[in-house]
Amino acid sequence: MFIYASRPPLADAPFVTRGVTAEVLKTQKDPGYQKSITQDPDFSEYRGFFETAKRNLKTQADAGVPYAFGTDTGPPGRFPGYFEHWEMELMVDAGLTPMQAICAATRKAAQLLNAKDLGTLERNKWADLIVLDRDPLVDIRNTRTIDAVYIAGNRIQ
Fold first, then answer.
1. For every residue of 50-112, which 3-state class applies, written as one string?
2. Pick from 47, 135, 122, 21: nearest CA to 55
3. How far apart are CA 55 and CA 78, in angstroms?
4. Domain boundaries, the chain
5. Contact 69/84 with Cβ under 8 angstroms?
6. Looking at residue 127, what DSSP letter applies?
7. Is residue 80 left, alpha or beta, with left meaning phi > 0 and alpha meaning psi from -120 to 50?
8. How remote is the C-alpha of 42 from its chain's centroid?
């Protein structure tokens, strides 16, 4: 939540603004709301906790500890769709490769959930996928360049 102590970059991101109400966007930009975030007694600790978590992810991944994608999307201030892409970006910022972040969000997440019919594109598996305009292995932020969306093998966008 510490990103909301000032105007967050996502407040103007088209990837977010298309799916969030004007009222929510107004709140994100409100100086009073931003000030309220800083009033949390532990606010000064949050960035440090976050940086420690990033270092721990990289250390554990390098050591072979199983990891997978799992965002906190759902609570107030976290927006479905955007935060998943941002989490992959943060995983890369932590030192993982773009492929490691993508696998964490797909194959590894399905494996840790024991969801045998999800996570990879294979015959007889559930096929949800996105088609991108740019290569996310070059820049993980390219996961936001969505050209098409398929759910259960059917194009919905």
1. HHHHHHHHHHHHHCCCCCCCCCCCCCCCCCCCHHHHHHHHHHHHCCCCHHHHHHHHCHHHHHH
2. 47
3. 22
4. 41-155
5. yes
6. -
7. beta
8. 24
- Please list the pLDDT of the chain residue by residue as tens digits (157 residues): 788 888 877 777 777 787 788 888 888 888 998 899 899 899 899 899 999 999 999 999 999 999 998 866 666 677 777 888 888 999 999 999 999 999 999 999 999 999 999 899 888 888 888 999 999 999 999 999 999 999 988 999 7
pTM value is 0.86
Distance between CA atoms of residues 7 and 11, nearest Å: 7
Tokens 């932020």, residue located: 141
Neighbouring CB atoms inside 10 A of 13's CB total: 16
